[in-house]
Amino acid sequence: MNMTYLHHSGFQIETKHSVLLFDYYTQNGMFDRVNEGDFPHKKFYIFVSHGHGDHYDPAILRWADRAHYILSDDVELPKDFKGEVTWVKPHQKLTVDDLEIETLASNDQGVAFVVKVAGKRTVFHAGDLNWWHWNGESEEFNNDIADSYRREIDLLKGREIDVACVPADPRLQDKYDWAVDYFMETVGAKVLLPMHFWKHFDICEKLRQKPYGAHVALIRREGDTFII
Ligand SMILES: [Zn+2]
């Protein structure tokens, strides 16, 4: 399958019969990268981890006639929206067509997704589940965040993850890599795609220097595609 980095925490996965989108965010149309005409016969599955503006973009609603939406239950839709929607909360398991979906609890808002695609590849998308250690925050806050992040990631121990999308946010300064480090040391993934890095693509190069660096996809720009 082809996996394309779109913008911020947004990814597109193209399989034989479908297109999966995660946290598609166009930033007021500036990064509107999906042209439905490129996939004439493919169904869209559109995942939104939570309702924050940098993860849920109403631009996705224009595909209602060909999409199934898997939305965290805090996402607000227009009242007259008629599309096909499955609402999710943390710690659920469900099946939508050939997708086996599990959710984790985010320690920010909403959920993280684990999706087995067509019985083959397993994709993890963290949403805003992150080791949000802010320098200058109270020890209590940072300890709670550490606990909540590790508790959720530990639920994946022993699982085989093909692709993992995990935040590496440079606003966390020298702690930007804690979430990815913990994920790779505890669970691991064949391919790790950093996200939520606010266009600081150098983050990917830095993560490539890590002991697990060979698994990190070197994203150089929006629109980069990787064959998984
Ligand atoms: Zn976010």
UniProtKB/TrEMBL annotation:
Domain of life: Bacteria
Alphabetical list of InterPro entries matching this protein: RibonucZ/Hydroxyglut_hydro
This protein's name: L-ascorbate metabolism protein UlaG, beta-lactamase superfamily
